[in-house]
What does this fold into?
Amino acid sequence: MISLLNKANSVDSVSLLGGKGAALARLAHGGFSIPATLCLHSTAYDDFLAANGAREKIQLELARKDFKEMRWEEIWDASLRIRNLFLNGRFPDQLASQIREYVERHFVGKAMAVRSSAPDEDAGHTSFAGLHESYLDIRGVEQLFDHIKKVWASLWNDRALLYRQELGLDARQSRMAVVIQDMIDSDTSGIVFSQHPDQPGQMVIESVYGFNQGLVDGEIEPDRWIVDRKNGSVLSLSEANQPRQAILRDGHGLHKQEVVGSQAAKPSLSNEELAAVGNLALDLEKYFGCPQDCEWTFSNGKLIVLQSRPVTSLAVGDQKDERSWYFSLHRSFGNLIKLQQEIEGTQLPAMAEEAKALEEIKLESMSDLELAAEVERRMAINQKWVDIYWQQFIPFAHGMRLFGEVYNDLIKPDEPFEFVSLLAGNAMLSTARNKLMAELAALINEDPQLAGQLNRGYLSAITHEEFLVKLNQLKRGFGNLFSSQTDLVDEQDSQKMLFAVLGQFAKKPMQSTRETAAQEKVKLFLEKARLAQLAFSGQEILDLGRASYRLRDDDNIYLGKIEQQLAVAVSEAKKRLDDQALFGKAEPERIIKALRGEKIDAVSSGAAKSKEATTLKTQIKARQLTGQPAARGIARGPCRLIQDPSDLASFQEGEILVVDAIDPNMTFVAPLAAAIVERRGGMLIHGAIIAREYGIPCVTGIPEAMTLITSGQVITVDGYLGIVTLGGKGDD
Amino acid sequence: MTQPQETEKEIRKKISALLESQLLAVLASQRHGQPYSSLIAFAHSKDLRHIYFVTPKATRKFINLISEPRVSLLVDSRSNTEVDFHQAEAVTIMGVVSEVGEDDLAACRSLYLTRHPYLEEFIHSPSTAFLQVTVRSYILVNNFQHVMELHMTDDHDIFA
It folds into this structure.
């Protein structure tokens, strides 16, 4: 189940050793110098799975929902659960002692590199290198065990799952071998293409001082030679502008730093070394029978092959489909910190200022043409912020995922989403708004006169000062709670709706959000992080995760205010257009045309859409629907479907909220709800976040939620298992 | 909102495919409130309205059915390996048993024999009864916990 790759060992089966392992075995067998290398066969993966009953658990996780219906976030959630399955798994005794024996014989006191070696990783003409994980500077057998598990788990990481078809990933039979290598000292490292992908007569050599990791992951700029294949003459050399190098800091992983002194003044390879690399590439090409893409290193003057594979076109990252955008969501700690500064320091204040400036504009005094221009301008402003939202805010949400991975690595919790409880407790705008609403409700409860005035609709008669101050605070801070972008609910109606909701708040004792993150868990995490000596402190990654979590909620509230200002302008325009039937639900584009007196089509697509929402009359009935268990707990009660923000006004205390996609502008009914069910899936989406804040059960990712569940129906929400059961106690 | 939705046609197709794939079903009958289950060889009508099976008249299940014709059947695609947990489907069938009348007998027997040609002698024996379950509803379970119901009448109460 494990073999040492050397000249004498002729095992080179790809299904056993994986692509990388098999290529290394062939190199060793051919007499090329490679670092001391062990390969853990793919059968060891099978053994581990069998010992932990994990194969069916993975299949259950992946069969939860049709892949086509899974959003990227749900794929990430699934892969996190699978990763946790591996982290908490136990090595079968025989396998563990075998690994221990080999490591003690060949790697004692040495830093190891632990690399994935999937059978399909480098197959064919496309390369999926980099999809799975590799780890550097691993020391000791216990660390090795942990990292073997992580490499195995990476067979099912979100990136691999996105490319499952191309990879032929199949939970029934996919397996992963693991390559364990001595991280030998590297003076200079690099890559060589024995044949330039575009110029068949040329060879490409890239080189950096130190380890080649920085070069391979694109963070360190190399010196680059183009060499004539026939005679080895240098056709061109472009030197790195600011040479940097990756060096190993004992037990602290790789560290990147500037190259200084005499080394900085000259290229990283001498002419002799360059020729040696060129010759090696040609030898490899001859041995393997096709042009090679090889990673090499000079260690104490000796040229060593780290890996070699056929020159391929890169499959990942250069595609036009949206998967490459998902890939861009994986950000490093440093990148996320920069993003946080940009968002909190620049974008959010600018957004608030812009919304305020728009609010102050007097639309009533504009001419029709001026108003048309203003609607157009607001559409552009809204679009600008929507773009920024996608470019910066959404990627920043990866901060909590990064924290989650670090937390799970260090703590290995039974529940893979335990980390979310450490993120909560920060002041989120939505919970601040809900608190304000609860305080208003409390004032109504305390003062029968105020309650009476509200009930009878004598709003102008209200003199309760504290109530008016808080009401004003709510309006100023959060705008009109019941408007959507194209459908503005007027001020008076909105106020009535608000009082209806406050009436529901008043029925319920004031509910506080959960305790700020369990202090014990925070303490344990910080302690473990300190011992693990990560590249960042535990507090730093926790702060990043918390900022990311808070912003995921807050950014929508800011964006909501901009959208509302567009809605205000559209609403003013609608008032001026006579035909409500024609313009009632029309998009801003049509409104602009109408204001300008241009001809428009008779049927608005907005009107057409509303017809689709008719419910199907059929003899089929859903009894039990499955989704993701996004917040624990169980609740039963009548449900209310929210088709439009104005439906929120009729929400009754104790009902179950069923929505297509909840956004934070809608979550003010969460404190009233017994549970939340959401069509859109994910463990870290708004519905899940707010449900965890209030400690109510939540199930997300039920594709049929809005079509198979009907308002008023009694449903049971099982937030432990992610199941929604339709029908009451006994049956219907 | 254009999320996919299982239509009645799709559910019917899934149930038909499951019935088609299996030769045997578990039949639950009862006596004095005591449930009793038996394995039976079944066939079904294309419109899913009826399930047919044959039983010797001297059996406990036949006697049970005479006094309480309401039954439940279970048909499933388990392979008795762990993949069942994400792969197997099961359908619970609720209905009422009666003997097939003379008019329909020939057609029903021929349908049944297409599924179970080896039972020719058995079904023609004077000691057996050729029975039909008139289905009230199907409850289809797949993906571990996804449950959909197909009702053949307007009364959707499973336990009526």
User: Anything to note?
Assistant: DSSP finds 27 helices and 23 strands in chain A. Confidence is low (pLDDT under 50) at residues 122-126, 314-319, 604-617 of chain A. The radius of gyration of chain A is 30 Å.
